[in-house]
Amino acid sequence: MSDTPIEDLVIVGSGPAGWTAAIYGARANLNPLVYEGAGSRTMIPGGQLMFTTDVENYPGFAEGIGGMDMMTEFKRQALRFDARVVTEDIVEADFSRRPFPMRSSGGREVLAKTVVLATGANARWLGVPGEERLAQSGGGVSACAVCDGALPFFRGQVIAVVGGGDSAMEEALYMTKFAGRVLVIHRRDELRASRIMQERALASEKIAFLWNRTVEEVLGDEVIAGLRLRDTVTGEISEVAVGGMFVAIGHDPNTAFLRGQIDLKENGYVRLPTPWRTETNVPGVFAAGDVMDDYYRQAVSAAGTGCMAALEAERFLAARE
Ligand code: NAP
Questions:
Q1: Residue 199: what are its φ and ψ, rounded to 5°?
Q2: How far away, in angstroms, is 6 Cα from ligand 1 center?
Q3: CA distance linking residue 33 with residue 160, whole number of Å
Q4: CA 255/CA 260 separation, integer angstroms
Q5: 148 in active site
Q6: Does 252 participate in catalysis according to the annotation?
Q7: Predicted pLDDT at 138
Q8: How much distance in Å is there from the Cα of 143 to the middle of ligand 1?
Q9: How close is the Cα of 33 to the center of ligand 1, in Å?
């Protein structure tokens, strides 16, 4: 670790919060080093927007923009100002001493005077029998319609989408392009999704709603054959034949590597002690975007807090050097 250069600013994560922090940090001559993530089965560099078809609510794009295109542009902008990028995860951090020692998934050691945590959140799974096995084997279970929905496997099938939020509506609408029929399975009789997304889904002739149902088991050996459902009101068990299931029931923050190092809320999101500041309980460590935001969770709010985090890091360094 003794030969390891000391970085002014290390940014962990590469969604809108991470790249915005990189753009601001680079323009402030902090020469930021961005750990954009190694990529896994459920997450890739660029974050959740990489799985989003159309972003229609980010100001400045009157006609909307594809999520992947948007993140490509964010990254390009950060690179234009010479942000440096490593395609690895940060897997360990010690925030008890500064500069903060961290270790990457590639075994790299890094020392940082300031850190912006922008690792976002990951899709949640139901945790019922059959789900994980069929998700891992490519047997027709997925948490991302935009990633997997266009596969020939799902064409013309009856597809289940589980959840009642905006993600579920978005996935259901997306799947109407390929599926014969889409069944939205929701545990209540009321949707959580925004009105506009509800209206779109309810207006689709291809989408039917199974209200007050939970999935108890995913049926099928090699590939999904159906779902065992429970009626949350009557307790009645039923089965429905489906050729695919997309789980869209929310997200968990990517904070496992921070446990014991930083103050987290009960739900695992990073706690920010001061209103309108992104500094965590550790001076010099800032958090931006979905990793600390369990309330707004929007691309534009993530980008805004990424900007705040970089400005705070810059002021933190200026006050000490
Ligand atoms: P969400 O709003 O938290 O909704 C999760 C849904 O899954 C809820 O309907 C919830 O049911 C259900 N659920 C949770 N755990 C479950 C379980 N174990 N079994 C069955 N159902 C379960 O999450 P989200 O839809 O991913 O949206 C997150 C945020 O991103 C929101 O702020 C949303 O507005 C935003 N977003 C926006 C867009 C867009 O504007 N196009 C698209 C995607 C996401 P209950 O309702 O009963 O709690």
A1: -60, -40
A2: 40
A3: 41
A4: 10
A5: yes
A6: no
A7: 84
A8: 12
A9: 33
Exactly one of 144, 166, 290, 293 is catalytic; name it: 144
- Residue nearest atom 4 of ligand 1, based on CA coordinates: 165
Which residues are within 8 A (CB) of 258 and not within 5 positions of it... i.e. 6 or more apart? 93, 117, 264, 270
What are 232's two structure tokens?
A: 């949350």
Q: What is the pLDDT of residue 2?
A: 64
CA pair distance 9, 14, nearest whole angstrom: 14
* Catalytic annotation, pick one of 8, 89, 148, 166: 148
Q: Are 105 and 91 in contact (CB under 8 A)?
A: yes
Residue 214 pLDDT greater than 60, yes or no: yes
- Per-residue pLDDT band for 258 (boundaries 50, 70, 90) equals very high
Distances (CA, A) of 314 to 20, 220, 321: 14, 54, 11
Stated pTM of the model: 0.78
Q: Which residues line ligand 1 (CB under 6 A)?
A: 57, 126, 162-168, 170, 187-188, 192, 194, 214, 248-251, 297
Q: Which has the closest alpha carbon to 13: 21, 3, 5? A: 21
Helices marked H in 28-115: 67-80
Distance 294 CA to ligand 1 centre (A): 11
Higher pLDDT, 11 or 143: 11
Q: Where are the alpha helices (DSSP H) in the chain?
A: 16-27, 67-80, 131-136, 145-148, 166-175, 195-203, 299-320
- What's the half-sphere exposure (Cβ side, CA atoms, 13 Å) at 134? 28
Q: 11 has which bridge partners?
A: 34, 116
Q: Tell me the average pLDDT across 169-197.
A: 97
* 47 contact partners, CB below 8 Å, separation of at least 6: 13, 14, 15, 16, 18, 37, 71, 120, 290
Instruction: Decide if 307 is catalytic.
Output: no
